[in-house]
């Protein structure tokens, strides 16, 4: 079945770095846009970044631009989020999510989502 | 930047009642680019509606979406116990390309 599993979260001090991974299975990973979304404790959803199937196109929320970098390895069916210069306000559960269809097949929507990985930035 | 506003913030209803949730955009968006998600405590969100009115795979037909331009609605015809959750709308635009609304919590009256 289609599945996304995030890993790499944890407790990190402000200013340090962390790399999140999202392992995909059950579908042709190289055909799909992939996204990272985060949710601060008790708050709503915030889109963080996306990357196109080949990696040629990507974008970021203004809140993370210049600090976070998305990448993917289609040979390993994985997408990554390198997070540098972390701040307290980056504390959140980080989800990866796939676009529900190949580009242009259906209107966009995130499906499925992983279970999330918690990142806590604190001294 | 397109800002999404959801109302009400909390909706208190009883099982069997109809729920109507609103999502308003700060500027007109294509209906193709409006989606709705459900999130239960401790779980990842789940796609309910895409393209403003199309149900995602496996979503019961008591969920329906409508609207265009700047005003969109998610309706739940008869609330089941498992429908009490937080609902988010989402739009695809430009700079930033993707934003979510703040959410509407549907809780048991």
Structure characterization notes:
Chain A has strands at residues 3-7, 10-12, 18-25, 34-39, 45-51, 58-60, 68-73, 78-83, 92-99, 110-113, 117-121. By secondary structure, chain A is mainly β. In chain A, strands 2, 4, 5, 6, 9, 10 and 11 form a seven-stranded mixed sheet that branches. Chain A has a four-stranded antiparallel sheet with strand order 1-3-8-7, with no helix packed on it. In chain A, a hairpin with a 5-residue loop joins strand 4 (34-39) and strand 5 (45-51). The radius of gyration of chain A is 14 Å and the shape is globular. The model of chain A has no long low-confidence stretch (mean pLDDT 97). In chain B, 0% of the residues lie in helices and 56% in strands. The N and C termini of chain B lie far apart (36 Å). In chain B, strand 8 and strand 9 (98-100) form a beta hairpin. In chain B, the strands form two sheets. In chain B, strands 2, 4, 5, 6, 8, 9 and 10 form a seven-stranded mixed sheet that branches. A three-stranded antiparallel sheet of chain B has the order 1-3-7, with no helix packed on it. Chain B has strands spanning 4-7, 10-13, 19-29, 34-39, 46-50, 54-55, 63-76, 86-92, 98-100, 104-108. By secondary structure, chain B is mainly beta. The A-B interface holds A 35, 44-47, 50, 59, 61-62, 95, 100, 106-111, 113-116 and B 32-33, 35, 37, 39, 44-47, 49-51, 54, 56-57, 88, 90, 92, 96-103.
